[in-house]
Specification:
It is a single chain. This protein is mainly α. The chain has one domain: Amino acid/polyamine transporter I (Up-down Bundle). 74% of the residues lie in helices and 1% in strands. It is built from 18 helices and two strands. The chain has a two-stranded antiparallel ribbon with strand order 1-2. A hairpin with an 8-residue loop joins strand 1 and strand 2. Helix 3 runs parallel beside helix 16.
Length: 417
């Protein structure tokens, strides 16, 4: 904390930072997305283009146009962010191995490309097959997270005071500007949430909710609080609190499983971009392309060869250009937090227009969402010049492609008529 945000490893700072992370996980992921936004689906599919389609069904032409623009911007942002996630995940995993093998520094780029090549090659086998391959690894990973965190919490249970949301409030009042900057970092704990919603067609609402509430949320909470407990006991651990949670003998196995887990985390965004692309094709915003159904049971489990390999090429270019995950860190977050703002507006529109919820209740929900989303987005704007331009540039290209295809297709249809 001290090196990045400008405050020392003080008790109040640790409690405030932990409280902020925990309540973001509760409010943004658990309440907003898994409880509210996931209610909005189109034949089981999620994603911001699904929200756009649902929101525009019962509105005026002018309002529908505005909703379409917001949906396309959000979808374009997702395309921009999806290029960064596999790159930063894989590179950070390979770089983690430098702790035990410093000579790997010159091999970060080629090793990252090799791992990514394998990851993209197995996509054609479908989510079910990939899930069977990866699920045991991820379950092991989350159990390790929980175990390491619990071990540290037992040694210093005082850290559990941070469960009180007033510590997050105190954090903002005490540290003011620095706490706002810290939002740009804590947002990394929730950046996968848009991919989670976009993946709903692949995995289903119930499995996602079940996994989150029974495994992922408890494990993340225990590990974050375990790191906090370690910092209270040993401020020197600020250098790398996660790996220092483990005993020395467990370091190498932990590095290996961490490397595997971060690579697997890329799977969510790859599946999400397949779903988003199919929705864009159905709505007429992208050219028809070959879509392969990889499951006889789940219609949402698909593979799109063209998108898979275009994404692969884009990710490889990013890896070769940036070389280290630290160079990409500044690019991470700005696009997905922008999409979160648009998701709040579109999902509450669906609640009012499609579900016919009370307008005052819906307004309160929207205000609550935006009170969190907008600070997260603005806190990431300072990343614009240092790397945030990358996902925004990629998103702009996708926005132009989608709107141009739609308008030209409409013009040709009118000409034929």
């Amino acid at each position: 904390m001290s090196g990045q945000f400008g405050f020392g490893v003080e008790r109040d700072a640790v409690f405030g930072f932990l409280s902020l992370i925990f309540w973001l996980l509760i409010f943004v992921v658990s309440i907003k997305y898994l409880t509210f936004v996931m209610r909005a689906d189109n034949a089981g599919e999620g994603g911001i283009l699904t929200l756009m389609s649902l929101a525009g069904r019962n509105t005026s032409a002018r309002t529908t146009s505005m909703l379409v623009i917001m949906g396309l911007i959000g979808g374009s942002f997702f395309y921009g962010e999806v290029v960064i996630t596999p790159a930063i995940s894989v590179m950070s995993a390979i770089e983690g191995l430098e702790i035990v093998a410093p000579q790997l520094d010159t091999w970060i780029v080629p090793l990252s490309i090799i791992v990514l090549t394998l990851l993209f090659m197995i996509q054609k086998h479908g989510t079910a097959m990939v899930g069977k391959l990866f699920a045991p690894i991820m379950l092991t990973w989350f159990l390790i997270l929980a175990g390491l965190g619990l071990r540290s919490i037992i040694a210093n249970p005082e850290v559990l005071h941070a469960l009180n949301p007033m510590w997050a409030v105190h954090f903002f009042l005490e540290y003011k500007t620095v706490s706002f900057i810290a939002l740009g970092a804590v947002v990394l704990s929730i950046t996968g949430v848009e991919a989670l919603y976009a993946d709903m067609g692949h995995f289903g609402k119930f499995p996602i909710r079940l996994a989150w509430f029974t495994v992922v949320l408890p494990s993340l909470t225990l590990n974050y609080f375990g790191q906090g407990a370690l910092l209270l006991k040993n401020p020197e651990a600020i250098k790398n609190p996660f790996f220092l949670l483990a005993p020395d003998w467990a370091l190498i196995p932990l590095l290996i499983i961490a490397a595997l887990a971060t690579v697997i985390a890329s799977q969510a965004v790859i599946s999400g971009v397949f779903s988003l692309t199919r929705q864009a094709v159905r709505l007429g915003y992208l050219s028809p392309m070959r879509i392969i159904h990889t499951s006889e049971m789940e219609s949402g489990q698909i593979y799109i060869p063209f998108v898979n390999w275009m994404l692969y090429v884009a990710v490889v270019i990013v890896i070769v250009s940036f070389e280290h995950s630290s160079n990409l860190a500044a690019a991470y977050g700005i696009a997905v937090t922008g999409t979160m703002v648009l998701t709040s507006i579109l999902s509450t529109t669906v609640a009012r227009q499609n579900w016919h919820w009370n307008k005052y209740f819906v307004a309160l929900i929207l205000i609550a969402f935006l009170c969190v989303d907008i600070p997260l987005f603005t806190a990431n704007l300072d990343k614009l010049l240092s790397g945030g331009w990358l996902p925004l540039s990629l998103g702009t290209v996708m926005f132009i492609v989608m709107t141009t295809w739609k308008s030209e297709r409409f013009r040709l249809l009118r000409a034929d008529a």
